[in-house]
Amino acid sequence: MSSSTHSVVIVGYGGMGSYHAKLILDNTRLKVTGTFDVLASRREASQNDGYPAYESYEAVLGDPAVDVILIATPNDVHKELVISALKHGKHVICEKPVTMYVKDFEEMMAVAEETGRVLMVHQNRRWDEDFRIIKEMYDKKTIGDLFQIESRVHGANGIPGDWRHLEAYGGGMLLDWGVHLLDQFVFMIDSKITSVTSRLSFILGDEVDDGFDAVLEFENGVTAIVEVGTTNFITLPRWYVKGTEGTAVIEDWSLTGRSVVQNHEVGKIEPKPIKAGVGLTKTMAPPSEEATLTEALPKAFEHESSFYDNFAAVVEGTAEPIVKNSEVLRVLNLIENVFKSARTREVIKDFDTYEPKK
Amino acid sequence: MSSSTHSVVIVGYGGMGSYHAKLILDNTRLKVTGTFDVLASRREASQNDGYPAYESYEAVLGDPAVDVILIATPNDVHKELVISALKHGKHVICEKPVTMYVKDFEEMMAVAEETGRVLMVHQNRRWDEDFRIIKEMYDKKTIGDLFQIESRVHGANGIPGDWRHLEAYGGGMLLDWGVHLLDQFVFMIDSKITSVTSRLSFILGDEVDDGFDAVLEFENGVTAIVEVGTTNFITLPRWYVKGTEGTAVIEDWSLTGRSVVQNHEVGKIEPKPIKAGVGLTKTMAPPSEEATLTEALPKAFEHESSFYDNFAAVVEGTAEPIVKNSEVLRVLNLIENVFKSARTREVIKDFDTYEPKK
C-alpha cells in the first residue's frame, strides 16, 4: 500500500458505481483496481470497461492488495457490506444514504472506531457549484443575513431505475435526492434544527415517495424549505433565497441567476401602484428601478480539496474528513423525523442531535 | 328607492373607499351619493371628487335616501359600523376582512338575519382573471386532477400604508392579502380542509406579520400552498399548479403563463441524463421535447355577474350572493387557525366548518 495511491474496489457496478470509476480516473491518489457486482451482466460491463470483476464479495475482502472498498449497491445492504469491509481491514467509501436508520449507522461507526479504519459517506453534492454559491452568500452575507433558503429539485420523469421504486431496498426520493439536499443544509447552517414539518408525495402510485417537501426551522432564525418532485413538468428555481438586504435566485443547473438588493444610495422611493387582477396594489408593485440593484451571484465557496483527495488524506492521517460521520448521523436522524412528520402530519420538535462546531 | 338604482354611501374614503367610488361609476345599478370619513382631509378629497361628505356617521344612518352603506374603514371598526347600518335598515357592503374573529362576524350575520337586510363582504379577488383561469383548470381538469396548487403574491415594498402596521387595527398581511388568497381556495375547492400549517414572517420588525405561508390539506386530496411576502425582491410565480397530466404556471399579473402536459401520442421516452452539479441525473433531466406538449392556458371561468351587479340583484331578491356569508365565516375560522398554527408551530386539524355545497 503506497501512501500516494490507494487501490479501490467498487462494489455495485450500476449507475453510480460506474460513474465513480470514471471520476476516479482523474484522481492521482485513488486507483480503481477491480469491481464486484451480484449481476453477471454488470461484471461483464466492468470487464469491458477495463476493470477486473471479482467473483464474490469474499474474494474482495480476502484480497490484501485492496485498500479501499467503495459501496454503490442498493441502500438496504450498505450496512452488512460496510461492516464486513471494515472488519477485513479495508477503508470504506459508502454511497448515500449510508443507511436508512440512525441505529444502523451508529453500529457502523462503532466498527470503524474499533477497527481504526476510515468510513466516509459519499455526500458529493456538498461540492455542487450551485450549493457552494449559496453557501458563499450565507457565510459572507452578500445579500444580508439569509433568513429563508428554498432548495428545490424538480423533474418530470418519475422515480428512476429499478430498486428505487421499492421500500425494502431503501427506495423513494427522500432517500435519493432528499438526503443530498438535507445534507447541504446541515453542512451549511451551524445551528440546531428546532422543528421539521413535511409531506411525502405518492402521486405516481409507487410504494415509496415520488417526492416530498420539508420545512426546517433553525434556532438561529433561518428557515429552510426543501422540495423534491418527479411530477413537475415546469420547474421552480433550484434555489430561491431571501436575505435581509435582498433576494437571490439560481434558476437551474446552468447556474443562471442573480441577486436583487436594496439600493442604499437612494432614499425610500414609493412604488407606483399597479393593476393586479380586479384591484390596484402598491404593496405588490415592483420596487421602482432606482430603488434596487441587480447583481451577479458571487463566486462559489471552495472546499479545501475534492471528495476523493480528502478521503485519501484522511486515510493517510493528514486531514480531517470534510464529510463527518457526526453530520451524516444528524442527517439520518433528520430523515427519520421527516418521515415521522409526514406520517403523523405533525410538526416534530426537539429531535436534533446538533452539537456546535468547535 | 328605485329597483334599478341603489344609492350608496362610502364610509372610509381612503385608498379602497375612493377606488370603489371610481369602479361604481361604471355600474348602472349602484350610484355613489356621498361619503363619510373621520378625517377632514378625506372629506375634502371626497368633495373634490364630486361626492358630498356627510358630517357624521349618524347623519348617514339617519338619511332615508341612503339604501346601501359601503364600509371601507380600518378593520377594527367594521363590526360596529356594519351593525349600526343594518339596524338603521341599510344594506351593507363591507371590505375584507369583514372582522378578525369568527364570533364578531356571527353577531353581524345574526343582525342581518333579524333586520332582513343584505350584508355582503367585498371578496372581489374571486373575480381576478388569474384566479379564474386556475378555477377553470380545476373544474375542467385541463391538466388532469389538480393535486397541488401554489398561490404566491410577492412584493418588496414592506407593509403598505398606516394602520396596516398596527395589530389593534387588524393590520398585517394575513388579514390584507391573505384573506383574498384563502377565500379563493374556499370558493374553488368543494372539500373540507383537514389540516393547516403556517408560519408568519416578522422580518421587517413590525408588530404585525409582513407575510406568511400556509399549507392547507383538503379531504379530496388537494394541497394548497398560500404565501404572501413583502420582502421578496425577486418574485416566484403567482400560480404554480400540478395536475395528474402536467404542470401549469401563471407568472404574474400580466397573466403570462403556460401548461406543459404529457404527450400521450408518443410512448414512454427515456430522458437523457444531464450534468447536475457534480453528478449526472436522469431523474431531474427535462423530459425530451417529444414527450411533452406546451399549451396556452384556458380561458378564465366567468362569474354570472360582477360583484356590484350581484349585490344589487341580491338586494332586489333576484339572485343568490356569489360571496356567501357562510364562506366568509369559514375563511375567518381558517384565518384564526392559521394564526394559531403559526403561534404554536403545530399542524392544526379538525377545525373546518365545511358543509358540502347543495
From TrEMBL, chains A, B:
Q: Which residues form the GFO/IDH/MocA-like oxidoreductase domain?
A: 131-248
Any Pfam family hit: GFO_IDH_MocA
> What InterPro entries has UniProt attached to this entry?
Gfo/Idh/MocA-like_OxRdtase_N (IPR000683), Gfo/Idh/MocA_oxidoreduct (IPR051317), GFO_IDH_MocA-like_dom (IPR055170), NAD(P)-bd_dom_sf (IPR036291)
**SUPFAM superfamilies, per this entry?**
Glyceraldehyde-3-phosphate dehydrogenase-like, C-terminal domain, NAD(P)-binding Rossmann-fold domains
Domain Gfo/Idh/MocA-like oxidoreductase N-terminal residue range list: 8-122
In which domain of life is the source organism classified? Bacteria
GO MF terms, alphabetically ordered: nucleotide binding
Could you identify this protein by its name? Gfo/Idh/MocA family oxidoreductase
Question: What does UniProt list as this organism's lineage?
Answer: Bacteria, Bacillati, Bacillota, Bacilli, Bacillales
